[in-house]
Write a structure and sequence with these properties.
The chain has 140 residues and is an all-alpha fold. It has one domain (25-123). The protein is 59% helix and 0% strand. The protein contains 6 helices and no strands. The longest helix is centred in the last third of the chain and has 24 residues, at 100-123. The mean pLDDT is 85.
Length: 140
């Protein structure tokens, strides 16, 4: 084998290579999408100022609403999202949260589930433990 005896100087070779990394510029809250309501942006921007983060929070709110089958009621989605975000901020101030987006999504799911059962109760369906649906699926 024919190996060159000369060592490679990394500082010189790194300068010769083209830099292919993209410099990402961070966009502030004024660059958020039109799909995100202005009142939600004004609430979130004080804690998460990047447009991408604000849009991600709203996307989680839309997903949770879709999962709970109430994506048509935009006022309920907005109120629930703002209330859930305030709960998230309270939790972040009092303790540590590993993934704020996931915690926010969990709060949203619980809130939409509560709204669903409140609507069922208003329609006249029973909310007791011994309801027909529970007796139907589970044997005693």
């Amino acid at each position: 084998m024919d190996h060159p005896n000369k060592t490679i100087n990394l500082s010189k070779t790194n300068k010769n290579l083209k830099i292919t990394k993209r410099n990402e510029t961070v966009l502030d809250h004024t660059f958020t999408s039109d799909r995100v309501p202005k009142s939600f942006i004004s609430t979130v921007k004080y804690f998460f100022s990047e447009a991408r983060q604000i849009e991600e929070f709203w996307r989680m709110a839309s997903l949770a609403a879709y999962k709970s089958n109430c994506e048509q009621d935009s006022i309920t989605i907005l109120d629930t999202a703002i209330h859930s975000f305030k709960q998230l901020i309270r939790k972040m101030k009092t303790s540590t949260i590993a993934k704020p987006i996931a915690y926010f999504y969990g709060i949203l799911n619980k809130k939409f589930e509560e709204n669903y059962f409140e609507e069922l109760l208003e329609m006249g369906f029973p909310a007791e433990d011994n309801a027909f649906s529970l007796n139907f699926f589970y044997k005693k």
